[in-house]
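User: Good morning. I'm curious how siroheme would be positioned relative to this chain. Could you predict the structure with it bound?
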Amino acid sequence: MHEEKGWSKVENIKRESNYLRGNIREELAQPSPAFAEETANVLKHHGIYQQDDRDYRVRSSQGGGPDQRRWIMMVRVKIPGGRLTTLQWLALLEFADRFGNGTLRITNRQDIQFHGVPKAYLRDLMAGLNRVGLTTLGACGDVVRNVVSCPAPLEDGGIRDELYRQAQRLTEHFLPRSQAYKEVWTEPTGADSAPAHLPGNDLGDEEPIYGRNYLPRKFKIALTLAEDNCVDALTNDLAFEAIVESGSIAAYHVLAGGGLGMSPGDASTFPALAQPLATVAPGELLPVAEAVVKVFRDFGNRNNRRRARLKYLIADWGLEKFREVVEEYLGRPLGPPREFLPVGIDTHLGWFRQRGGGWFYGLFVENGRVCDRSEIRLKTALKVIAERLRPGIRLTPLMDILLTELSENQRSELEHILADHGVSRSEERSPLRAHSGACVGLPTCGLAITESERLLPRILDQLETVCRHLGLQDLPLCVHMTGCPNGCGRPYNAEIGLVGRGKDKYAIYLGGSPAGSRLGYLWERLTPAEQIVPALVPLLGAFAQHRQDGEYFGDFCARMGPEALRQLTGGSAPVLGETPS
Ligand code: SRM
Ligand code: SF4
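Assistant: Good morning! Here's the predicted structure, ligand included:
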């Protein structure tokens, strides 16, 4: 592995952290409510983000004084393929009340996040998670993140189960090997504990894949199926699309270089979808993934974190050179890629027969937030369901929950529990709401510029009325919203992308594909929040009038292109530049 001058500050922090130990143990033992900045950076690799309550910050500055911060932690639990046992789920619900803000957030990578955890509760929370066999190790930080795969136990001949097995294998293979996590969270702290990690005392951990500096940036992997790309695979650094022949996986189509983050003021940054790289035999999946990760480790940009993702290495080198270097690392040539892109997506909401017998129910969870809110007591309903029916729990990349292994006579009991707690059945949700989602945004995300999770439901209320009025109420339409241009809510390949760009103002993107295989274009640069629906009404009207048979809104916007669409809707000239390439 090369080491060079000019590396960013974060690279130095990682190198000096002694394999992710840093000062975490020392600072945990101190009464201060926050960690030092360097320690907070190391903590990310343990799945913990230091945040402050942004609502509190605003309130505190309203009197004209300096803004004050109430420090809180976000803790992300890494759940490959999104599968949990009933007991794990019950423990997560209990920990949310004991250690967090009383909610759980299902993420769009099938993880669970706790928000609002005070520093003083971290050790107890982490110990509790470890007791039920869950980990936060590598859920964040410059490593391979949670590997996603479709969680639905459909009668598909076991294809999705095989993808899940591969997701687990990849996750285990790429977990950091450092003992730091165990030391920090399971060994006693305080005066009587012998710190085995004195400064300068390198314990000799080995990170055979990552090395001392870990990766230049996060790295994301997805496993998917062309007809059901519910994981949105092409937004990942590396995607494996199963090629199914005669009922089993004959090969994987490999795509590389997806990633959505961009900095609007820096034209060298851009969202990108993964590009076809190769076709590989099922047995080659892991070695190929390792070769790609190692190429990224050795050649990714360590000077400038804004340009440190795999997509930029591929853009700088070109796909051909990238493939050649991956082949060198692999020690053999890669098979040529096929023209084989995702064509569909399934939300998995409602009742389905389960492979192997019984039923599963896909329960809609608005923006993944599991909470009790006035008369809608979703969190309590999910606790009662878990205690009485003992279902398996699976989290979807659309941030919903699948309740699995239910018998025929448990179906009505589940529906009664939902109704008793004011939770609507998924079947009553509009296709618009089922396909849409927002990132977390305010008040916890430190990078948020605007509202996202708290605003999208209100926008969807209005859009549902508009769609009904235009006869589009049965149309699946995906609106993805984010509170900043980092793209966590995957807005750039959605049919409608809403991206927080200024105070209460959003960029509007149009023309992404329903299956996530095409980036949209920038339509409006800075639309005030209350103008978003009025800006979309003429577009939906034009679509209702001019759509071709069976055409989706995103496909219509792509077919028209921005100029023709503006003419059709009587708008001004198209916004130039910043269209994702
Ligand atoms: Fe993300 C940073 C939340 C999926 C691109 N993301 C963040 C942080 C940790 C903010 C920070 O760095 O301080 C957010 C924490 C908010 C909070 O309060 O919880 C955050 N990202 C999320 C989640 C929870 C959004 C959600 O609504 O579910 C998702 C957690 C996934 C997980 O379990 O691992 C989440 N983030 C994504 C995705 C979508 C995906 O992975 O499928 C993307 C776009 C794909 C990609 O990686 O390019 C994404 N997040 C980013 C970026 C931009 C990275 C870049 O290359 O520029 C950042 C900023 C950064 O890393 O510096 C970011
Ligand atoms: Fe935060 Fe921006 Fe990601 Fe939303 S897109 S969670 S605001 S970093």
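Confidence is low (pLDDT under 50) at residues 194-202. DSSP finds 17 helices and 21 strands in the chain.
Let me know if you'd like a different ligand tried.
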